[in-house]
Amino acid sequence: MPPASAHVIAFPSTPCVRTKPYDLSIAVQDWLDAQLRVAEHVRERLVADGADCRLIAILDQHAAFLREARSL
């Protein structure tokens, strides 16, 4: 096996400075959207695989919770 090689990446020595205040509510909305997409994808896979209906129902409830939380 040949030896591994790597390139060193130089990062700036000064920290990043935000030009706008961090909006936590936007971050939470993004997180909820991502969680909902994952739940919907997993549900589709479970249905396609013929998984237990109880598991699919629980995932449906979780997706409904995420939709509700996202609308707040």
Task: Give structural notes.
There is one protein chain. With 72 residues, the chain is an all-alpha fold. The chain has a domain of 47 residues. It has two helices and no strands. Helix 1 packs antiparallel against helix 2. The longest helix has 25 residues.
Shape: flat
How many helices in DSSP terms?
Answer: 2
Q: What's the β-strand tally?
A: 0
State Rg.
21 Å
Helix content estimate: 55-70%
Major sheet: none
Low-confidence stretches: none
Could you give the distance between the termini?
Answer: 55 Å
Beta-strand percentage range: under 5%
Oligomeric state of shown chains: single chain
List the helices and strands in order.
HH
The average pLDDT value, as a whole number, equals 85
Structural class category:
mainly alpha
